[in-house]
């Protein structure tokens, strides 16, 4: 930024003209909207999943009805009537289910629209309400990922942003997570079956790991015969892809769950279930196009990186800077410092940026304040200036300009 | 970003979806229709003893009709169109948005307990006390510093002000009289002024005047010396008691004064608590939204150059965030292109231009000779350059 160079200045290379503050704010706001992928993607994925399962249901039932219709008993017409009547009631049942499915789809379509509408009203840079709702959305996302479901629901309800957060999606995941924590694999396997083709595409290992766990549970219960039968049926198909792990796990057959042999010991440990929960969460996020980390962590990291300067740890760090607080400093510790290519001066008194409109002025003692602050002070004190940091007193007329580029 | 083109893409999806769903229901209806017709025919045959048709042929006819209808193909067709629209729209999304914002994420563990404490206090700061309590309970973060009590006091004062009750605000201001004065805040006087105007505008002519006069004597007089102008204006209002709205001072009754004062009170309250005005969590996240696009571009460039993003100590480029996030003065020497430090502070040459101490040492060959300012034709000697403190 060029500041008050009112003398001709041949040196150094001219910096490109800084865009006006308002324009800068607008580009930043537009760029910020481009980060909201998850907001529009998740409801779309829900819609896709519902459409797929509704379609599958209709397909299956209709196929069944068709084959049943062609196999109607031909011995007597009464038997045929009975058979066909039962088919009609089956079809009515299907129709009810399909109508219900269509209603769910419509709700999800509405939700997708609500998200687009929200983005259409995106702030152009200075809209406290928009930013407040945005933060609330991010907090709900954080709570859902951390399994603080009650708080998430309450925050969404009290701020009326249910259409903008994905509580139901996460509640679906919760069922699976809870069951895994209770050492049950059935709901997780059902989830894998529902999303089979897409999990395969993303090379998910979840189902394999779940199968391994079930196998290990048989071994734990000293049920070797059943374990082998289970492995033949459910583990063998994974042989091509994960032979190493398959070998290692099947070797547990000869060890017992109280083994001290490390590579096998860990397979028996309770922590394996936590590991499965983690893997499930990862696959779940991928499937819905979510980031693996909570959005809050991502934005906090970026924000703290942008704000982190070596001055933040000084005692004089103003309290408006989040990094003046212990908690934020701790979070920022492993992050890099930001960098400045151009001078940016903040008036110690007014905390405002000093620029051509409000240029810096130097007191005889070398301390620098904005012209606005000094003018105000001199007006109140008959032209006298008291340096707030040293207590030195001088005349306003003694304060000289400084040119900073 | 063009929301309209996204909307168009999604409208296509929605349209194909309702079409596909209608088609599927229609197919079911058609099957029902055919089967029911067959049933009627079968029943007719029972009552009609001519025996022209036998039931196997009716069943065969039903079968061939159903085959001809091929409901599964109909289903498949409309579903395919829907899937086409969906994947097209997905591609538009990928293009319009940044599909993976976690690329610039540094793999460090954010201490959960620190983050939770920050969130709980954020809710307390916003006056969402029930939510803060619930959150603290749910994440087991009941210890730690809590802003609950002080902010409860603040919100109680603000609530009372909303109900046009200034008592709690006044007693708080009186209690913190010295500190407010030190901050140069006129809050206390402004509160008394507001109360005074309230009495004037509500009271009837007779009693109102007495009450207002008494109030002015006890509460406003102590401020008369400092706020002379305002004081005179307020006393003149006494002439219009009961009809202040028709006076030249009707502006004093504007409800904007209440809002402004509530804001000022919030500001002073936070300041006396040693807290920032804005919630630090809001500030950090807003800065994140502004800074992340640059960080994402940076990681892309660095990945291409095979540089390590995860361990870098300082960013190689500046991040463009709004001036509202600038809390510290940063001086970058225009000659050395380096940030100033205690060892290399900014110095002002007699012409007014500022460069770093090291630059001056270089230009003056270690203060041995006069040198020309790099910005203007004037000459300087090192001993006449003065160190600056921002």
UniProtKB/TrEMBL annotation, chain A:
Pfam families to which the protein is assigned, alphabetical: CTLH, zf-RING_UBOX
Residue stretches making up the CTLH domain: 169-226
GO molecular function annotations of the record: ubiquitin protein ligase activity; zinc ion binding
One cellular component term from this protein's GO annotations in UniProt: nucleus
Top-rank taxon: Eukaryota
CDD domains, per the entry: RING-Ubox_Emp
Biased composition regions of type Pro residues, renumbered to the chain: 9-19
Signal peptide range in chain numbering: none
Zinc finger RING-Gid-type: from-to: 317-390
GO BP terms: proteasome-mediated ubiquitin-dependent protein catabolic process
Subcellular location, record wording: Cytoplasm
PANTHER family linked: E3 UBIQUITIN-PROTEIN TRANSFERASE MAEA, MACROPHAGE ERYTHROBLAST ATTACHER-RELATED
Name of protein: LisH domain-containing protein
Organism from which the protein derives: Sorghum bicolor (Sorghum)
From TrEMBL, chain B:
One GO cellular component term noted in the UniProt record for this chain: nucleus
CDD domains from the UniProt entry: dRING_Rmd5p-like (cd16652)
Cited Pfam families: CTLH (PF10607), zf-RING_UBOX (PF13445)
Main location: cytoplasm
Transmembrane segments: none
ZnF (RING-Gid-type) intervals: 333-376
Ranges where the CTLH domain occurs: 150-207
GO molecular function, one term: zinc ion binding
InterPro entries membership: CRA_dom (IPR013144), CTLH/CRA (IPR024964), CTLH_C (IPR006595), Fyv10_fam (IPR045098), LisH (IPR006594), Rmd5_dRing (IPR037683), ZF_RING_GID (IPR044063), Znf-RING_euk (IPR027370)
Family annotation (SUPFAM superfamilies): RING/U-box
Record-annotated RING-Gid-type domain positions: 333-376
GO biological process terms, semicolon-separated: proteasome-mediated ubiquitin-dependent protein catabolic process
Cellular compartment(s): Cytoplasm
Taxonomic superkingdom: Eukaryota
Keywords, comma-separated and alphabetical: Cytoplasm, Metal-binding, Zinc, Zinc-finger
Stated name of the protein: RING-Gid-type domain-containing protein
């Amino acid at each position: 930024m060029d500041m008050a160079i009112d003398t001709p200045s041949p040196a150094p290379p001219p910096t490109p003209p800084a865009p006006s503050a308002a324009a800068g704010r607008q580009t930043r706001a537009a760029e910020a909207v481009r980060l909201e992928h998850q907001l529009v993607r998740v409801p779309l994925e829900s819609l896709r999943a519902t459409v797929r399962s509704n379609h599958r249901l209709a397909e299956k039932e209709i196929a069944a009805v068709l084959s049943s219709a062609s196999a109607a008993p031909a011995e007597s017409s009464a038997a045929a009537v009975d058979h066909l009547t039962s088919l009609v009631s089956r079809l009515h049942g299907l129709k009810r289910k399909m109508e219900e499915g269509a209603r769910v789809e419509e709700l999800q379509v509405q939700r997708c629209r609500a998200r687009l509408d929200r983005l259409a009203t995106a702030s152009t840079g200075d809209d406290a309400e928009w930013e407040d709702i945005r933060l609330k959305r991010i907090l709900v996302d954080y709570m859902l990922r951390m399994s603080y479901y009650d708080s998430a629901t309450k925050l969404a309800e009290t701020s009326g942003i249910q259409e903008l957060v994905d509580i139901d999606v996460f509640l679906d995941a919760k069922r699976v997570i809870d069951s895994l924590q209770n050492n049950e694999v059935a709901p997780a396997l059902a989830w894998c079956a529902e999303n089979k083709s897409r999990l395969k595409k993303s090379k998910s290992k979840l189902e394999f790991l779940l199968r391994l766990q079930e196998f290990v549970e048989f071994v734990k219960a000293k049920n070797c015969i059943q374990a082998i039968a289970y492995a033949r049926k459910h583990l063998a198909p994974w042989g091509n892809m994960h032979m190493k792990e398959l070998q290692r796990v099947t070797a547990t057959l000869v060890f017992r769950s109280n083994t001290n042999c490390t590579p096998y010991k860990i397979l028996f440990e309770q922590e394996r279930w936590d590991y499965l929960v983690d893997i499930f969460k990862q696959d779940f996020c991928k499937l819905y196009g979510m980031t693996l980390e909570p959005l809050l962590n991502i934005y906090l990291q970026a924000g703290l990186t942008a704000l982190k300067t070596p001055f933040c740890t000084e005692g004089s760090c103003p309290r408006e800077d989040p990094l003046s607080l212990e908690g934020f400093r701790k979070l920022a510790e492993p992050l890099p410092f930001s960098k400045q290519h151009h001078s940016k001066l903040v008036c110690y008194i007014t905390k405002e940026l000093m620029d051509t409109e409000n240029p810096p002025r130097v007191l005889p003692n070398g301390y620098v304040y904005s012209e606005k602050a000094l003018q105000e002070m001199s007006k109140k004190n008959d032209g006298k200036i008291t340096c707030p940091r040293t207590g030195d007193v001088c005349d306003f007329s003694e304060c000289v300009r400084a040119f900073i580029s | 970003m063009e929301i309209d083109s996204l909307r168009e893409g999604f409208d296509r999806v929605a349209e194909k979806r309702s079409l596909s769903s209608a088609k599927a229901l229609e197919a079911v209806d058609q099957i029902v229709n055919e089967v029911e017709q067959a049933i009627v025919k079968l029943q007719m045959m029972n009552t009609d003893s001519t025996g022209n048709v036998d039931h196997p042929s009716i069943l065969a006819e039903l079968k061939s009709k159903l085959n001809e209808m091929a409901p599964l193909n109909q289903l498949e067709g409309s579903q395919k169109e829907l899937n086409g629209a969906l994947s097209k729209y997905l591609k538009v999304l990928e293009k319009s948005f940044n599909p993976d914002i976690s690329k610039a994420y540094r793999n460090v563990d954010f201490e959960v307990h620190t983050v939770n404490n920050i969130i709980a206090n954020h809710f307390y700061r916003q006056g969402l006390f029930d939510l803060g309590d619930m959150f603290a309970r749910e994440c087991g973060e009941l210890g730690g510093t809590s802003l609950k009590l002080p902010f409860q006091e603040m919100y109680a004062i603000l609530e009372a002000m909303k109900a046009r009750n200034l008592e709690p605000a006044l007693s708080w201001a009186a209690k913190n009289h010295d500190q407010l004065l030190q901050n140069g805040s006129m809050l206390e006087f402004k509160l008394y002024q507001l109360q005074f105007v309230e009495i004037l505008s509500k009271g009837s002519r007779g009693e109102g005047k007495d009450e207002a006069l008494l109030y002015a004597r006890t509460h406003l007089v102590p401020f008369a010396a400092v706020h002379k102008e305002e004081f005179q204006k307020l006393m003149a209002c006494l002439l219009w008691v009961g009809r202040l709205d028709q006076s030249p001072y009707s502006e004093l009754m504007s409800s904007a004064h209440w809002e402004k004062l509530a804001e000022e009170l919030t500001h002073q309250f936070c300041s006396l608590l040693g807290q920032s005005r804005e919630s630090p969590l809001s500030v950090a996240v807003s800065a994140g939204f502004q800074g992340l696009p640059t960080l994402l571009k940076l990681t892309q460039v660095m990945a291409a150059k095979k540089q390590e993003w995860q361990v870098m100590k300082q960013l190689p480029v500046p991040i463009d965030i709004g001036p509202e996030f600038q809390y510290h003065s940063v001086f970058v020497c225009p000659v050395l292109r380096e940030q100033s430090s205690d060892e290399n502070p900014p110095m002002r040459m007699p012409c007014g231009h500022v460069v770093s101490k090291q630059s001056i040492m270089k230009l003056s060959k270690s203060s041995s000779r006069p040198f020309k300012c790099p910005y203007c034709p004037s000459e300087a000697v090192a001993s006449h350059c003065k160190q600056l403190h921002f």
